Automatic annotation (TrEMBL):
GO terms for molecular function: acyltransferase activity, transferring groups other than amino-acyl groups. InterPro entries: Acyl_CoA_acyltransferase, GNAT_dom, YpeA/RimI_acetyltransf. The keyword Acyltransferase applies. It comes from Paragemmobacter straminiformis. The keyword Transferase applies. Residues 1-189 form the N-acetyltransferase domain. Pfam families: Acetyltransf_1 (PF00583). This is GNAT family N-acetyltransferase. The lineage of its organism: Bacteria, Pseudomonadati, Pseudomonadota, Alphaproteobacteria, Rhodobacterales. SUPFAM superfamilies: Acyl-CoA N-acyltransferases (Nat).
Length: 192
């Protein structure tokens, strides 16, 4: 039985960082790699109060981060980048990440990454996490949930569409596609 809960227990931080990196390392690896440093960075910046976890008999099986005006699940700051990668490594990584742009949308509840353990996919965990995110957004007074999914992740986009999310816009990332490995970010919205 899978149980979703708000917040990330301290004992699950390392496992959560590994799960997050497994899901997003392909996109972020050229910037946040090598993997040991990326894991240290993700574990450092994760906000335990900005995620919903899915736990099963085998432990952590999925998580969904979110962003609010108070912060984001896996954002971090230039100071965090410098602390993990050093002065030069932190500086160039910060510059590249800023090229993707910030997100000033404060009118909708923002999903900041959803991941499910590979051996647990196809069992409804992503659907349960999306339902929990929608419930959390509603409880916080938002009228809609917004997310971005890259054009190379058709499986995730199909899940979001099945769960009532509609495409709002597609944003090409231009030459950054050579760094991040995708061409467009699709913004999807579901009214609550």
């Amino acid at each position: 039985m899978i149980r979703c809960a708000l917040g990330l227990p301290e004992a699950m931080r390392r496992e959560a960082a590994a799960l997050y990196w497994q899901a997003f390392g392909g996109k972020l690896g050229r910037v946040l790699g090598p993997e040991p440093l990326a894991l240290a960075f993700v574990e450092r910046v994760m906000r335990a109060d900005h995620c919903i976890i899915a736990v099963g008999p085998g432990g952590l099986v999925g998580l969904a981060g979110f962003k609010t005006p108070a912060g984001s699940f896996a954002g971090g700051t230039p100071a965090d980048l410098r602390a993990v990668y050093g002065a030069w490594g932190g500086a160039w990584r910060s510059g590249v990440m800023q090229l993707l742009g910030g997100d000033g949308d404060q009118t909708r509840f923002l999903l900041d990454g959803l991941c499910v353990r590979p051996d647990q996919r196809g069992q409804g965990i992503g659907t349960a996490l999306l339902a929990a995110i929608c419930d959390e957004g509603r409880a916080r007074g938002y009228g809609a949930v917004r997310l971005d999914v890259v054009d190379t992740n058709a499986r995730a986009r199909a899940l979001y569409e099945r769960r009532g999310f509609a495409l709002e816009r597609s944003t090409p990332i231009g030459p950054l596609r050579y760094v991040f490995g995708f061409r467009e970010a699709h913004t999807m919205v579901r009214n609550l």
